[in-house]
Design goal:
elongated; Spore_III_AB; about 170 residues; Stage III sporulation protein SpoAB; mainly alpha
Length: about 170
Protein backbone atom coordinates (compact mmCIF):
# COMPACT_ATOMS: atom_id res chain seq x y z
CA UNK A 1 0.00 0.00 0.00
CA UNK A 2 2.78 2.41 0.93
CA UNK A 3 4.73 1.52 -2.22
CA UNK A 4 1.61 2.23 -4.30
CA UNK A 5 1.26 5.62 -2.60
CA UNK A 6 4.95 6.39 -3.20
CA UNK A 7 4.69 5.38 -6.85
CA UNK A 8 1.61 7.57 -7.25
CA UNK A 9 3.42 10.54 -5.71
CA UNK A 10 6.41 10.06 -8.00
CA UNK A 11 4.22 9.82 -11.08
CA UNK A 12 2.16 12.82 -10.02
CA UNK A 13 5.25 14.94 -9.27
CA UNK A 14 7.08 14.23 -12.51
CA UNK A 15 3.91 14.61 -14.57
CA UNK A 16 3.17 17.92 -12.86
CA UNK A 17 6.69 19.17 -13.64
CA UNK A 18 6.32 18.18 -17.28
CA UNK A 19 2.94 19.87 -17.60
CA UNK A 20 4.26 23.00 -15.83
CA UNK A 21 7.15 23.24 -18.28
CA UNK A 22 4.77 22.71 -21.20
CA UNK A 23 2.52 25.50 -19.88
CA UNK A 24 5.46 27.88 -19.69
CA UNK A 25 6.38 27.11 -23.31
CA UNK A 26 2.75 27.61 -24.35
CA UNK A 27 2.42 30.94 -22.49
CA UNK A 28 5.43 32.55 -24.20
CA UNK A 29 3.76 33.19 -27.60
CA UNK A 30 0.67 34.57 -25.86
CA UNK A 31 2.78 36.99 -23.86
CA UNK A 32 4.72 38.05 -26.95
CA UNK A 33 1.46 38.75 -28.77
CA UNK A 34 0.31 40.82 -25.78
CA UNK A 35 3.54 42.80 -25.92
CA UNK A 36 3.10 43.45 -29.62
CA UNK A 37 -0.46 44.68 -29.04
CA UNK A 38 0.81 46.84 -26.19
CA UNK A 39 3.51 48.45 -28.31
CA UNK A 40 1.10 49.05 -31.18
CA UNK A 41 -1.33 50.70 -28.76
CA UNK A 42 1.50 52.71 -27.23
CA UNK A 43 2.48 53.89 -30.70
CA UNK A 44 -1.08 55.03 -31.38
CA UNK A 45 -1.28 56.81 -28.01
CA UNK A 46 2.02 58.61 -28.63
CA UNK A 47 1.52 59.46 -32.30
CA UNK A 48 -2.16 60.30 -32.48
CA UNK A 49 -3.40 60.77 -28.95
CA UNK A 50 -0.47 62.87 -27.72
CA UNK A 51 -1.00 61.19 -24.34
CA UNK A 52 1.68 61.39 -21.62
CA UNK A 53 3.48 58.11 -20.96
CA UNK A 54 2.01 57.59 -17.49
CA UNK A 55 -1.53 57.81 -18.89
CA UNK A 56 -0.65 55.61 -21.86
CA UNK A 57 0.81 52.97 -19.55
CA UNK A 58 -2.30 53.16 -17.38
CA UNK A 59 -4.53 52.59 -20.42
CA UNK A 60 -2.41 49.60 -21.44
CA UNK A 61 -2.58 48.07 -17.98
CA UNK A 62 -6.37 48.09 -18.16
CA UNK A 63 -6.51 46.64 -21.69
CA UNK A 64 -4.06 43.75 -21.39
CA UNK A 65 -3.82 40.46 -19.53
CA UNK A 66 -1.40 39.47 -16.79
CA UNK A 67 1.60 39.63 -16.43
CA UNK A 68 1.93 42.29 -19.14
CA UNK A 69 -0.87 44.36 -17.57
CA UNK A 70 0.97 44.40 -14.24
CA UNK A 71 4.15 45.53 -16.00
CA UNK A 72 2.45 48.57 -17.51
CA UNK A 73 0.48 49.20 -14.31
CA UNK A 74 3.71 49.35 -12.33
CA UNK A 75 5.17 51.75 -14.86
CA UNK A 76 2.12 54.02 -14.74
CA UNK A 77 2.17 54.11 -10.95
CA UNK A 78 5.92 54.68 -10.75
CA UNK A 79 5.81 57.53 -13.26
CA UNK A 80 3.07 59.26 -11.29
CA UNK A 81 4.83 58.80 -7.93
CA UNK A 82 8.50 59.47 -8.68
CA UNK A 83 10.59 61.83 -10.73
CA UNK A 84 12.89 59.08 -12.01
CA UNK A 85 13.55 58.81 -15.70
CA UNK A 86 11.46 56.48 -17.83
CA UNK A 87 14.38 54.18 -18.79
CA UNK A 88 15.24 53.56 -15.12
CA UNK A 89 11.64 52.79 -14.20
CA UNK A 90 11.28 50.61 -17.32
CA UNK A 91 14.36 48.62 -16.29
CA UNK A 92 13.02 48.06 -12.77
CA UNK A 93 9.59 46.97 -14.01
CA UNK A 94 11.21 44.74 -16.63
CA UNK A 95 13.18 42.94 -13.92
CA UNK A 96 9.93 42.12 -12.13
CA UNK A 97 8.28 41.10 -15.42
CA UNK A 98 11.11 38.64 -16.06
CA UNK A 99 10.25 36.86 -12.80
CA UNK A 100 6.53 36.60 -13.56
CA UNK A 101 6.54 35.85 -17.27
CA UNK A 102 7.61 33.13 -19.66
CA UNK A 103 9.73 35.54 -21.69
CA UNK A 104 13.27 34.53 -22.52
CA UNK A 105 16.44 36.55 -22.26
CA UNK A 106 16.36 37.59 -25.94
CA UNK A 107 12.89 39.12 -25.63
CA UNK A 108 13.81 40.86 -22.40
CA UNK A 109 16.91 42.34 -24.04
CA UNK A 110 14.80 43.68 -26.92
CA UNK A 111 12.45 45.27 -24.39
CA UNK A 112 15.37 46.62 -22.38
CA UNK A 113 16.84 48.29 -25.47
CA UNK A 114 13.45 49.77 -26.32
CA UNK A 115 13.01 51.06 -22.78
CA UNK A 116 16.34 52.86 -22.93
CA UNK A 117 15.00 54.97 -25.82
CA UNK A 118 11.54 55.60 -24.40
CA UNK A 119 10.76 59.24 -23.73
CA UNK A 120 14.08 60.48 -25.10
CA UNK A 121 13.12 61.16 -28.71
CA UNK A 122 10.55 63.07 -30.71
CA UNK A 123 7.40 61.31 -31.89
CA UNK A 124 8.76 60.25 -35.28
CA UNK A 125 11.93 58.72 -33.85
CA UNK A 126 9.91 57.08 -31.11
CA UNK A 127 7.69 55.54 -33.77
CA UNK A 128 10.78 54.15 -35.52
CA UNK A 129 11.99 52.60 -32.26
CA UNK A 130 8.58 51.03 -31.67
CA UNK A 131 8.53 49.62 -35.21
CA UNK A 132 12.02 48.19 -34.77
CA UNK A 133 11.03 46.60 -31.48
CA UNK A 134 7.89 45.16 -33.06
CA UNK A 135 9.94 43.56 -35.83
CA UNK A 136 12.28 41.98 -33.27
CA UNK A 137 9.33 40.70 -31.26
CA UNK A 138 7.76 39.28 -34.42
CA UNK A 139 10.87 37.18 -35.03
CA UNK A 140 10.83 36.01 -31.42
CA UNK A 141 7.13 35.18 -31.75
CA UNK A 142 7.81 33.01 -34.78
CA UNK A 143 10.49 31.16 -32.84
CA UNK A 144 8.24 30.79 -29.79
CA UNK A 145 5.38 29.43 -31.90
CA UNK A 146 7.71 26.84 -33.42
CA UNK A 147 8.93 25.93 -29.92
CA UNK A 148 5.36 25.26 -28.78
CA UNK A 149 4.84 22.81 -31.62
CA UNK A 150 8.13 21.10 -30.81
CA UNK A 151 8.38 21.13 -27.04
CA UNK A 152 4.89 21.21 -25.50
CA UNK A 153 4.08 17.59 -26.18
CA UNK A 154 7.69 16.59 -25.48
CA UNK A 155 7.67 18.10 -21.97
CA UNK A 156 4.37 16.45 -21.11
CA UNK A 157 5.57 13.06 -22.35
CA UNK A 158 8.94 13.31 -20.63
CA UNK A 159 7.24 14.21 -17.36
CA UNK A 160 4.99 11.16 -17.40
CA UNK A 161 7.58 8.77 -18.80
CA UNK A 162 10.32 9.83 -16.38
CA UNK A 163 7.91 9.16 -13.52
CA UNK A 164 7.16 5.71 -14.89
CA UNK A 165 10.90 5.05 -15.31
CA UNK A 166 11.59 6.05 -11.71
CA UNK A 167 8.80 3.79 -10.48
CA UNK A 168 10.16 0.85 -12.47
CA UNK A 169 13.70 1.47 -11.19
CA UNK A 170 12.52 1.65 -7.59
CA UNK A 171 10.43 -1.52 -7.78
Amino acid sequence: MISFLGASLILFSTSWMGFAMAKKVKERPKQLRELKVALQSLEAEIMYGHVPLDEAFGHLSRQLNEPIAAFFGELAGALQETASSVPILWEEALTRLAERSSLKKAELEVLQQFGSTLGRHDRDNQKRHIQLTLSHLERELDEATAAVATYEKLYKSVGVLSGLLLIILLI
